Amino acid sequence: MQTTMDRATTAATDRIEQIFSGPDIDWDQIYVTKDDSMALGTRYQLIYSALVHFIALKKDPGLADRLRQQLDTIYRGLVDPKS
Asked: Are 41 and 33 in contact (CB under 8 A)?
């Protein structure tokens, strides 16, 4: 039986995969506030996602093949003018 934490983790993982699995970020799924000062909130969403990937890779280096494409997409997003 899945716990609330397991369901939340699964939902977050699914969302990250939807946003970052392609060659480019799915910008429509990135939350942007009306007053997003200098796209700071957008950068935080990318940076924290990259940090989660880094932590996962430290715990299990076997995930590298699966997460490499997502990390590449995140890094490209960080240099995109939208962020």
From this structure: yes
